[in-house]
Amino acid sequence: MNEIGSLLFGILIIVISTKLVQWYLKRKTYCDILNRIPGPKQYPVIGTMYEFFGASKYDFFYINTKHSKVHREIYRVWVGMECTVRIIKPEYIEQLIDSTKHIQKSSIYRFLLPWLGRGLLTSFGERWFQHRKILTPTFHFSILDTFCSVFSENSSILVDCLRKYSNTGQSFDVFPYVARSTLDIICETAMGVKVNAQNENVENEYVKAVHEASILSLVRAVKPWLYPNLLFTLSSTGAKQKQVLSILHSFTEGVIKERKLALKNNTTSAPGTDNESDGNIYGRKRRLAFLDLLLQANEKDNLLTDKDIREEVDTFMFEGHDTTASSIAWTLFFVALYPDIQDKIVEELKTIFQQSDREATMQDLNEMKYLERVIKESLRLNPSVNFFSRIISEDIYFGEYFVPKGTNCTVDVYHLHRNEKYFPDPEKFDPDRFLIDNISDKHPFSYIPFSAGPRNCIGQKFAMLELKSEISTILRSYKIKPTQRREDVHICSELVGRPYEGIHLIIEDRAF
Ligand code: HEM
């Protein structure tokens, strides 16, 4: 090597070393700041991921949250080289989610992108704002009113599907039945198509694929070596995901295609069709499917592309059926465990329906105040969304702890709901915690099963009506009894917190 070559080589080494030192110092300062927040011991590169080594996917929830029992307000974990600050204190949660600044979901949601794309759950910025504005009217009170008959019809089909177990003493897992029913409901109400999943006797392919896609996203999240897309694509998890996504996307594409065709042939009650003016179709009030609004925005105003629609449909199909299925199953479990609470619900239903077997209307559902408290208490103890995450978009202080911009921050809903200050004897199932007099002195962010602030759950009113309709219809037909003890049913937190072993019930006909 001549002199110039050696000189250039020397300069290159100096530049690279300087950059490395700069990166190291910056990184060290960043890590030092975050390591002031308490949390488990971390190691270079792997961070605190060693906790997941050898664990089965069913342990994720308990590993993820075991530190919340020790650090009751805030702590940090390191997913490889990425820090996540977990917050449990209502005041910190309010700072994060009540603000319009920290609106972007955390980096963990990127694993949902192949499935849900940039739908409402995963998008941010102007795109999120525009889509939320387009979608909000679909959950208007007057539209929900027209959905109540769909809730009732599908709840009755669910009751029929369960009849074979009644008075037999045979225990069965109610979860798959409920999941098929909530899938039928979301398809019919939001998408305007009937898929009749409840008529199938086998596990529905779409429901099964949702389950698998949730697990695969989580498996990837705890294996940093699968983060690079290329490595993931080559892995067995990547291959499985490809297969599962093809089932999910063909299902939603089919739903969109069917609805588009129906709109074209004028066989629906969509806005802008001949049926719109009469306000009544097939003896029912006109229904405005969520998908119709999207298709309208696509056709008339060019606001949404075909891909945008597919992504929103995937998001709503997932958010709209898995969360509710889980909440219904958990609530049925609690109601089965506590017969006195079950009796009180039935008393309320007798007052409302006076022995009639008519369908529940919106007004009936609004009168189910005690059942509402039972559902709220169930969502407190086993929220279907146990955690959700954001990126800190501006430097923030949580109490004495500084968290720099760009850090992931997770809200631990499960442990928030067990704060003894707001929920004394937190493991006790007590629906009366939600009596008006008992909630007035609670921190507004101490109970957030549907999140809160600008990115709260858009479907929460829909969900509450659906839950009441399904649970009340079941209890008007059957007495339900548990076959598992509470301590034996574990949470399997994929994206939604499901009962790991299912919810096994015994049912008997009820003379209503
Ligand atoms: C018991 C049932 C439900 C629970 C517990 C629940 C809970 C939540 C929570 C906690 C979030 C915030 C998630 C996050 O920030 O990552 C959320 C968002 C969302 N939920 Fe729900 N949800 C339920 C039912 C539904 C239903 C029935 C629908 C649709 C029909 C729905 C649609 C959505 C959508 C689209 C978002 C994203 C909203 C946005 O970011 O603007 N959810 N839900």
From TrEMBL:
Cofactor field: heme
Domain of life: Eukaryota
Transmembrane parts of this sequence: 7-25
Keyword Transcription regulation: no
UniProt xrefs under InterPro entries: Cyt_P450 (IPR001128), Cyt_P450_CS (IPR017972), Cyt_P450_E_grp-I (IPR002401), Cyt_P450_sf (IPR036396), Cytochrome_P450_Monoox (IPR050196)
A GO molecular-function descriptor: monooxygenase activity
Gene3D superfamilies reported in the protein's UniProt record: Cytochrome P450
Positions that bind heme: 457
Coiled coil (UniProt feature): none
Keywords attached to this entry: Heme, Iron, Membrane, Metal-binding, Monooxygenase, Oxidoreductase, Transmembrane, Transmembrane helix
CDD domains reported in the protein's UniProt record: CYP4
Family according to the record: Belongs to the cytochrome P450 family.
Protein name stated in the entry: Putative cytochrome
Annotated organism of origin: Corethrella appendiculata
